[in-house]
Write a structure and sequence with these properties.
Helix content is 77%, strand content 0%. It is mainly alpha-helical. Helix 5 (55-74) packs antiparallel against helix 6 (79-93), helix 11 (180-199) packs antiparallel against helix 12 (209-231) and helix 14 packs parallel to helix 16.
Amino acid sequence: MMQIVDSSIVNVAIPHMMGNLGASLDEIAWVSTGYILAAVIVIPLTGFLGEFFGRKRYFVTSILIFTAASILCGASHSLDALIFWRVVQGLGGGALISTSQAVLFEAFPREEAGMAMGLFGLGIMVGPTLGPTLGGWITDNYSWPWIFYVNLPIGILAAALVGAYVHDHPSQERTKHVDYLGIALLAVSAISLQYLLEHGQREDWFESGLIVSLTIAAVVGSALLVWREMTAEQPAIDFRVMRHRDTWVGTALGVVVGVGLFGSVFILPVFLQGTLRMTAWQSGLIILPGAIATAFSTFTAGRIDRHVDPRLVVTVGGGFFFLSMWQLSHITAQSGAHDFFWPLIFRGLGLGGLFVPLATITLSGLDRRELGQATGLSNFFRQMGGSLGIALMATLLVHYQQESRSVLATHLSWYDAGTRMRLGQLTAAFLSRGADVASARSMALTAMQGQLVQQASVLAFAKVFLLSGFILIGALPLLLLVRLPQRGGQRGPAAAE
């Protein structure tokens, strides 16, 4: 949870950082981008790095790097220093989720792995929702450096507990070969892809020469990376783990969940604060019940993992998510906090019910030696799915807003009786407040324009919400390809050996 929260908590503090550090919006965006770019390189390498340094040593070191960099981020007095330490923080944080997941799945017997994944999944699924809420509260009541300082006690405790209780498997073998070419190709392709997804909308996509160049680098680099790693004797990223049908199906569904989770988490605060004019704290309170529902459903999914087919749980979770998106697509400009309660409860139940069964599908049939590589790759692709979801939602929002504004504008005409009546009502209202006739008419026109923009925004968000639901539902037929092993008394990879 510490790592997930930290990747989203910064966003609400950006205005405070801009004022304190004297940075523009484009400059301060690198505080988020630098962290993500560093983490996205490390995530798929966690299996290799765990084998090279020893999983326990690598895990503890990553926690300490993340924690130390957090303190130095908070202590930064210049933009350059803050960006540098955020990159270092990303190098440490990128290892935490994949390594944690591999450790848990290796340590617990199969009949307890679902419960372990359920508890672990609380941080994965609740973190993106809690980040903006916690960040808003800290920055409003203290100052932005404290969003980094809060990691200190958690990081020290985590490192101490891992050092005391997590141990490498007795049969773990250390690799001594470093695939420098594979790592270089990963860095080029991953950074290019992540950057174009993060900044493509802002740069107007392929109208920008930079985005075109990054697209070419991402495509060519990815192709060379796959070729290199599939032919190398000791690859840094072992794509061969994807030969298992359940692993690639679970990973593919994880990408779709990433699109839905990060996409909906991204656009909902924008809708609440941008269109409905709510504060960060108000939007956080609206989102909070959904986070609690996510925690409940994740925990429940872990409890029933031994007894219920994970394909059924994924299907039910997808159904809840679609129901939520369908309800959110009917939200209006007059909606209040109570109108979001049940849609976000259903979204929380849906998303929370997806993580544990997808982990079971992706990892349960693997050999112990393949767990590190599989968790790294599955988390990497889910991260890419999240970035794709945010980029897709942002692009479609702009498109749908422009489209809706054009359609609505055709109905605003001097020849339309409703338009003339509404303009007269607004003009009379401004006249009653002491404005002269010319000023009242001008303010009435401005108000109508604002209402047009707001309604176009509502219609655009409705389409995007509904699309998010259809994307997830459309991927569920992949479950027909899953071939789970027999569950009766079977133990996990570590226990089996």
